[in-house]
TrEMBL record:
Belongs to the MoaC family. Catalyzes the conversion of (8S)-3',8-cyclo-7,8-dihydroguanosine 5'-triphosphate to cyclic pyranopterin monophosphate (cPMP). It comes from Pigmentiphaga litoralis. One of its GO terms (biological process) is Mo-molybdopterin cofactor biosynthetic process. This is Cyclic pyranopterin monophosphate synthase.
């Protein structure tokens, strides 16, 4: 067997049993970016997008996505989240919006998938709200930044 845990002894995909794992505080942070035309970034920054508060709506979308991750990702456990935060940084030099999501729980499995899903949905929401004026936007560099808790302890991305 490869060491991947979502396969049973017969090689079939299954949901991992985390029932015996102790509940511990778990935190994951993920990030990503969306690059766009300078005029699009200006509309977002100034709150002049035709569809409204782009970053405010993207923040809500991120939180909603984190809460629904198990409905979107096969074999992902439903997790009772204790906290989700979504922050945006407008980068004028790169003509981009950077998104960082932190997801937290006290449970038997981690929240990496929730944080990663939330970042993707936040960035897709920005794209959706601005695509009428800029179809060339690019979502990239979505990645796990940090993971804390559980048996494996702390993991930090070395960038």
């Amino acid at each position: 067997m490869s060491g991947l845990t979502h396969f049973d002894a017969a090689g079939q995909a299954h949901m991992v049993d985390v029932g015996a794992k102790p509940a511990t505080a778990r935190v994951a942070r993920a990030g990503g970016s969306i690059r766009m035309e300078a005029a699009t970034l200006e509309r977002i920054r100034d709150g002049n997008a035709k569809k409204g508060d782009v970053l405010g709506i993207a923040r809500i979308a991120a939180i909603m996505a984190a809460k629904r991750t198990s409905d979107l990702i096969p074999l992902c456990h439903p997790i009772p989240l204790t906290h989700v935060s979504c922050d945006f940084d407008i980068d004028e030099a790169a003509s981009a919006v950077h998104c960082t999501v932190q997801a937290e729980t006290v449970g038997g499995t981690g929240v990496e998938m929730e944080a990663l899903t939330a970042v993707n949905v936040a960035l897709l929401t920005i794209y959706d709200m601005c695509k009428a004026v800029d179809r060339g936007m690019v979502i990239d560099n979505v990645r796990l930044l940090e993971k804390r808790g559980g048996k494996s302890g702390v993991w930090l991305r070395q960038e």
